[in-house]
Amino acid sequence: MFQSCQLRSGFPEGEYNAPGFLQRMVGMIPMKKIGVLALQGGVEEHIAALLSASEKLGVPVQIAEVRAPDDLEGVDGIILPGGESTTLSKLIERAELAGGISHMRKVMGTCAGAILLAKKIEDGIEGQKPLCLMDISAKRNAYGSQLASFEATLTTIFGTINGVFIRAPKISIEGRGVQPLAFYGEEVVGAYQKKGERHFLAFAFHPELTSTKFHEFFIRL
What we know:
This protein is of the alpha/beta class and 221 residues long. 20% of the residues lie in helices and 35% in strands.
């Protein structure tokens, strides 16, 4: 069917500021506020990757866990983490977040998050509502089940990195404005699209588990 247009631990809930010397740089470099959708999936992994990326770049970042529309106040961009795309879609709708996410200046989706960014979902579940923000299609679970999860070497615009695939979707580019960012063999597993002053990134794999390069890229946008 086509659709068109875990338990968390470790971090306390709320907002996070980049550590160390970055606190002293707020007067020199504007603080960026980035949200991480915190309804399901790898929330703490993305928070950790953002904080590490912030420190490497020397750019102060405030991170907000997003569970309700009010949490989007002042947010410059949002990350949609992995999880289960059908459940995530329903949770977004229940929390009345779809409109706010769709108007963000920049959005990054990984695994299930990438599926939600797509304009077309292959093998989607009836009632699943994508955000339709990128000119890509996504085929759910194209790389196998949870038991078939794997790690592979990827070719990216930042060089060779390892990528972790967990019930990963297959991404297909559907528009001229979409640029590939990462390949697994000949297959596109990371993509970027700029629409006016807005930016969208989709990844079939989980960059937050092995590298900060794409989070650095997202912060710089």
